[in-house]
Amino acid sequence: MTSLSKLTKIEDRIISWMAINAIVMLRVSVGIIFFWFGFQKFFPGVSVAEDIATRTIDVISFGIVKAPYSMPILAAWETIIGLGFITGQFLRFIIPLLFAQMAGTVFPLWVFPEETFHLAPFVPSLEGQYILKNIVFITAAMVILAYDRGKIIARREKNNS
Q1: Kind and range of the H or E element at 149?
Q2: CB 124, CB 118: distance < 8 Å
Q3: What is the DSSP code (8-state) at residue 47?
Q4: How many helices (H) and strands (E) would you count in the chain?
Q5: Torsion angle, CA of 9/13/16/21, rounded to 10 degrees?
Q6: Euclidean distance between CA atoms 52 and 127, whole angstroms
Q7: Spatial separation of the C-alpha atoms in residues 119 and 113, rounded to whole Å
Q8: For residue 148, how many other CB atoms are within 10 A of its CB?
Q9: How far apart are alpha carbons 125 and 129 in whole angstroms?
Q10: Stretch (H or E) spanning 118
Q11: Would you put residue 124 in left (φ > 0), alpha (ψ -120 to 50) or beta?
């Protein structure tokens, strides 16, 4: 066996392991991040996103949801999303919660562009970068839901044939 074929065999094992485990690891890692960031919001002054999140919720709710209530609501929302991803339970319902939360998260890019960009739309500020990284979470949620629901659909089709 040549050294190239040995390397190929090792690579194949690694890729096979990744194919089996990557989606679960992606799901759990997204869950950890959501739980972690959500849990912080239960404690006033801890989350770096508290100020912009509070003001965004105030704008989105037309002033109905005030600051003392917005952070606990957002904290619970994000923590529930995190727990859903970590456990893999109720993803069909958890992922739409994530999408709704993400819609609110990107809102400051349009409402507070002076804070989210140094030069809109090309040079995001630190807050803008914090928001823009959520594109990865949206895409990850799409992959996880497609995988999770795809398994169910495949089983159903197999049983019907």
Answers
A1: helix 134-160
A2: yes
A3: -
A4: 8, 2
A5: -160
A6: 9
A7: 9
A8: 16
A9: 6
A10: strand 117-119
A11: beta
Question: pLDDT tens across 96-151, in order?
Answer: 999 999 999 999 999 999 999 999 889 999 999 999 999 999 999 999 999 998 88
Model-level pTM?
Answer: 0.89
Instruction: Count Cβ neighbours within 10 Å for each residue of 76-96 and write b for 16 or more, e otherwise.
Output: ebbbbbbbbbbeeeebeebbe
Which of 24, 18, 15 lies closest to 148, judged by CA? 24
Question: Residue 2, SS3?
Answer: coil
Do 120 and 108 contact (CB within 8 A), yes or no? no
Token reading at 125 = 């500020």
Query: What are the pLDDT digits (tens) for 42-70?
Result: 999 999 999 999 999 999 999 999 988 99
C-alpha Rg value of the chain to the nearest Å:
20
Q: Interhelix angle for 134-160 vs 3-40, to 10°?
A: 110
Q: How far apart are CA 148 and CA 24, in angstroms?
A: 10
Contact criterion met (CB below 8 Å) for 78 and 38: yes
- What DSSP element (H or E) covers 124? strand 123-124
Rounded-to-integer distance, Cα 70 and Cα 11, Å: 48
State the DSSP code for 90. S
